[in-house]
Amino acid sequence: MSTLSHIQAPSNFAYKKEQVTIHLHYTFTCDNRIFFFKTQYKDLLNHTYRLTVDVNSPIDESGLATDFMAIDALYHNKIRPLLDGQILNETLVNMNTTAENIALWIRDEFNKILKPQDDLIKVTLYESTNHGVTVTN
Q1: Cβ–Cβ < 8 Å for 109, 93
Q2: Which CATH number applies to 19-136?
Q3: What is residue 77's three-state secondary structure?
Q4: What is the pLDDT of residue 124?
Q5: Taking CA 136 as the corner, what is the angle to CA 18 and CA 128, rounded to the nearest 5 degrees?
Q6: Longest C-alpha distance within the chain, in Å?
Q7: 20 to 30 A from 129, CA-CA: which of 13, 29, 99, 112?
Q8: Mapping DSSP to helix (H, G, I), strand (E, B) and coil, where does residue 75 land?
């Protein structure tokens, strides 16, 4: 017998029907060449990026916002395959693969696949422990 076996379902599942911000964190490792000029560039090999995605989601009648795992599945199935273990210059659109451009691309991809009730607030992409960029909707 569990110490919680006496607990019954509440009469109200949702405390309030408001919006919450869901915070999701990911990492991916890739290769890419960043251009400063047509003939000047820097190669990043086996480079790890950290990604934070913030999504506003309404709380439903059960007291839940969009499930973390549902957004994770969207990322892992639609976005990550084009980033993780890839040469970004080959898998992303024809652009300079700077942190700024990658973050904007990730934002656009999330906007395509999130459920209509969810609003992407921002994407933050860290190129290193101390350096990153944030793009908002």
Answers
A1: no
A2: 3.30.479.10
A3: helix
A4: 98
A5: 115
A6: 71
A7: 112
A8: helix
What's the gap between Cα 120 and its chain centre? 9
Determine contact, residues 83/91, Cβ cutoff 8 Å: yes
Residue listed under structure tokens 């990322």:
75
Bridge partner residues of 94 (DSSP): none
Round to whole Å and give the CA distance between 124 and 52.
5
Domain boundaries, the chain: 19-136
Q: Which residues of the chain, if any, have pLDDT below 70?
A: none
CA distance 121 to 137: 6
Helix (H/G/I), strand (E/B), else coil: 114: coil
And the tokens for 14? 């949702």
Render pLDDT for 107-117 as a digit per residue (tens, 0 to 9). Answer: 999 999 999 99
Predicted local confidence at residue 16, as pLDDT: 87
Cβ-based neighbour number of residue 39 at 10 Å: 6
For the four alpha carbons of 44, 82, 96 and 48, in that order, the dihedral sign comes to negative
pLDDT given at position 15: 86
Through-space distance between the first and last CA atoms of the chain, rounded to whole angstroms: 49
User: What would the two tokens of residue 49 be?
Assistant: 């990026």
